[in-house]
Amino acid sequence: MSESKLGNILHSSLEDEIQKSYLDYAVSAIGRTLPDGRDGFKLVQRRIIFAMHHLGNTYDKQHKKSARVVGDVIGKYHPHGDSAAYEALVRMAQPFSLRYPIVDGQGNFGSVDGDSAAAMRYTEVRMSKVTNAVLKDIAKDTVDFVPNYDNTEFCPSVMPTQFPNLLVNGSTGIAVGMATNVPPHNLYDMMQAVIQLIDNPETDIDELIEIVKGPDFPTGAIINGRAGIVQAYKTGRGKIYIKAKAEIEQNGKQDIIVITEIPYMLNKSRLLDKIGWLVREKRIEGISTFRDESDREGMRVVVEVKRGASPEVLLNKLYAMTQLQSVFGINMVVLDKGQPRCLGLKSLLNLFVDHRRDVVRRRTQFELAKAKARAHILEGLAVALANIDAVVELIKKAASPAEAKANLIAQSWSIDQGIATLLKVTESAGLDADHKHYQLTEAQAQAILDMRLHRLTGLERDKILAEFKELIERIKALMEILNHYPKLMAVIREESVAVAEAFKDERRTEIVDSQVDIDDMDLIPNDPVVLTLSHLGYLKIQELDSYKAQRRGGVGKSSTAVRQEDYAKQLYIANRHDSLLCFSNKGRLYWLKLYQLPLANRTSKGRPIVNYLPLQDDEEVTALMPVTEFEDGRSVVMVTKLGVIKQVDLASFSRPRQGGIIAVNLDEGDSLMNVLLAKPSEDVMIFSSLGKVIRFSLSDVRVMGRGARGVRSMRLKENDFVVSAIIANEDYPVLTVATDGMGKRTKLSDFRKTGRGGQGVIAINLSENARVISAAKVSDDEDIFLITDGGTLVRIGASSVSIIGRSTKGVRLIRLKNNESLVAAQVFTSEDDEAEDGAESEITETDE
Question: Per its UniProt record, what CDD domains does this chain match (predicted)?
């Protein structure tokens, strides 16, 4: 594109001008927003530190007003607004932002709750002790200085830091088209990695990762998994998962969750607001209250758990629904020789080691030049002291200082062998070829003229010679460092060890080696529980040891607080990790996880099951099936109230659906009553309320799809219906229980096998108005749980119930109170509890 210049007007195309201007802006933004890979500082941070250095605002002196520091920064080095400079100063003083704060602040510098810092006229600052290691040797020509914006001041282009500040304190920044996010690390660990690289530059990244375990955040917390750390250290990019550190404690009888550490850069106040919102919107249930008890001693957020709620599940929900667990994206983009690059851990450490090598080399050169300059003066003083009488006489005869100086330079001075030997070490240019005479320089002559008379004493002469000898040794040592690479690296190593020991402290962030996606189930012990469902649909679980075994005939104890018209009609024994298949009277199936149900106490009535399941109108749960695993080769056998039986593969029910599914299609007026697990080769026994039972092989019932109706299991009388179905097992007798509290055990061989669809045989001889409520397999080492419609539960040993024939009434299992009836019975393996006392009953037999 052609350009023409007319006077002060430059003509160019809009496209070219936009490209050029944007590129200039992008380069400028990158230089200000990305940290230098050598010292880890951005432009404004470096200028703040240097301004404090110029003010003498060191860690061992008084604090100075922040406004004074900011004024120097924006007036001398940083031509931007005071708010930008003060915000950078504030962050450098926040112990929750930097792992090792660069600035020691006095006053309000904000908080982890997101509170703003006080105005700069109210706060005071000074450099922290660690900043001394950042500025060490800055006056010894260790780094380049560049002019400020108006060429009136000079400031360093990089700091001669003794530790890799970029990795130790981390950095964040957004430039044009790129960003950086470097996490902070433990200084001691990082210096050990530096020392390892000095000892063996061929150290690979895997060895470095063994030394640098991972980021170490100022707010502590837990890093969940090392995969993201390894990826970031190798490539410069990766994701790590950070979770808060929390403990479950007991406050009297109440469980509380205590949060003591939160993820890096998380605003605690916003976290509490989010928890409050989740509670108000009922996204999380089980929190009675929460509060912030943080103080000067540390962080402490307390969440009180409602009685009956699981604190483990609640904590896991807080992790999942709040920022108590968050992702930190590592993106280690830094400036390397002015160019933005994404570097891994080893590259960044090598960048720092190279910088330290350059700093120490330049410092050594500076100290060597200074030592040689001082040695040069001492050479002249030593020569003058060796010829003191002639020197004094020459000065006395001179008409002026200039003449005296010229005469000292013009004369060749004799020296003894001792001084000549010293001068040969320094390779002095004033020494002649025969090493017996010395020619003074202008600087030496001036030093002789400036020498005080007291230096002519013997003691002072000895001091000058001793200093000269020390300087000669110092020069030899410095030359050794510059001329031998291993010596140079040894100096860097020694200083690195000293810095590591000076700032050694314990890690704050815990690292879990492998990432574990914790599920609620992982936090709940797989303990056995008693599961009850009431007539009005109240569901609850309670610990099994709430009940001791009693002798048969005992009065029992209350299992649940029930309303007058309600009673517990179903009882199951299961483990908390089991899946609970909930079958409704409409033939639909719903899913629950038992660990999702809160543990209730013995007298609690529980919670309506409609709170857990999306039941439809006039729908109620009639059968529950706890399932540990959805095994192949097992089937679900469903029996309806009117005697229809259906068999479906268990695996067909292994994939839960939120709205439930159709398990069986029912005839009008029919409802699903019983559900059990079986194998197709086993026998099934179906019991009716009038005391009849039929036994046949499940092979007579083909395996069907979920939407099928099923086939007839037994022929029922008009006023009869199915109450129980069990899988036959020759090793166990069959327990039959009636509503009047009577029951018995009968050998399985007493029940003959017939074809499907028959009327069956007598299972128990019932008294007037009594009905069968349950039938189950039971052995001598198992217990029997019995529940009445009044809410009474009794647990008796099965061995206390005698084994008798089919045509008997049985024995009294429980002594019922007035107007009470048995409504449920369940068998469970005994836990060897001590039996509580109860009354015995006699066996009553009748003819079939």
Answer: TOP4c (cd00187)
Other C-beta atoms lying within 10 Å of the C-beta of residue 339: 9
CA distance 161 to 49: 12
d(CA 518, CA 515): 9
Statement to judge: residues 484 and 532 lie in one domain: no
Q: How far apart are CA 741 and CA 442, in angstroms?
A: 125
The HSE-up count of residue 265 (CA atoms within 13 Å, CB side) is: 13
Q: Can you give the CATH number for the domain in which 375 is found?
A: 1.10.268.10
- Pairing mode of beta strands 222-224, 510-512: parallel
Rounded-to-integer distance, Cα 68 and Cα 57, Å: 11
Does residue 742 contact residue 691 with C-beta atoms inside 8 Å? no
Residue in this structure with the two tokens 């045509």, named with its chain if needed? 807
The residue among 727, 726, 744 whose CA lies nearest residue 735 is 744
8 Å CB contact between 90 and 117: yes
Residue 465 lies in a domain: yes
Q: Cβ distance 761 to 693 under 8 Å?
A: yes
Q: How far is CA 271 from CA 170, 178, 262, 263, 301, in A?
A: 24, 29, 10, 11, 10
In a domain, 256, yes or no: yes
Q: Are residues 714 and 606 in the same domain?
A: yes
Name residue, tokens 């790129």.
178
Residue 637 CB contacts under 8 Å (≥ 6 apart), including other chains: 645, 646, 647, 675, 676, 677, 678, 684, 698, 701, 725, 727
Look at residue 543 and give its three-state secondary structure.
Answer: strand
Closest CA to 311 of 272, 254, 242, 243: 254
- For β-strands 412-414 and 287-292, DSSP reports them as unpaired
- Which stretches of the chain drop beneath a pLDDT of 70? 1-7, 417-435, 458, 514-523, 545-569, 602-603, 828-848
Return d(Cα 539, Cα 604) in angstroms, integer.
10
Burial class (CB in 10 A: 0-12, 13-18, 19+), 230: middle
Do 459 and 317 fall into the same domain?
no
Lookup: tokens for 311:
């604190």
Q: Are residues 496 and 541 in the same domain?
A: no
Cβ contact 386:420 at 8 Å:
no
Amino acid code (one letter) for 338: G
Judged by DSSP in three states, 307 sits in coil
**Residue 393 structural domain:** 353-500
In the annotation, is 732 catalytic?
A: no
Active-site pick, 22, 122, 149, 485: 122
> How wide is the angle at C-alpha 387 spanned by C-alphas 381 and 389, nearest 5°?
115
| Residue 622 within any structural domain of the chain | yes
Closest CA to 503 of 130, 38, 217, 103: 130
**CA 663 remoteness from chain centre:** 43
698-717 confidence digits (pLDDT tens): 888 888 887 788 898 998 88
Does some domain include residue 165? no
For the chain, how many structural domains are there in total?
3
539 - beta bridge partners?
Answer: 533, 607
Q: Which residues contact 251 (CB under 8 A, 6 or more apart)?
A: 304
Domain check: are 650 and 769 in the same one? yes
Beta-bridge mates of residue 333: 342
Per-residue burial over 480-519, b if 16 or more Cβ lie within 10 Å, else e, is ebeeeeeebbebbbebbeebbebbeeebbbbbeeeeeebe
Please give the Cα distance from 665 to 152 (Å, whole number): 92
Query: Which element (helix H / strand E) includes 412?
Result: strand 412-414
Q: What pLDDT does residue 546 have?
A: 60
Whole-number pLDDT of residue 166 = 95
Look at the chain and count its residues. 848
- Structure tokens belonging to residue 89: 């100063």
φ, ψ dihedrals at 186, nearest 5°: -75, 130
CA pair distance 454, 518, nearest whole angstrom: 82
As a whole number of angstroms, the distance between CA 527 and CA 546 comes to: 13
Q: What is the DSSP letter of 75?
A: I
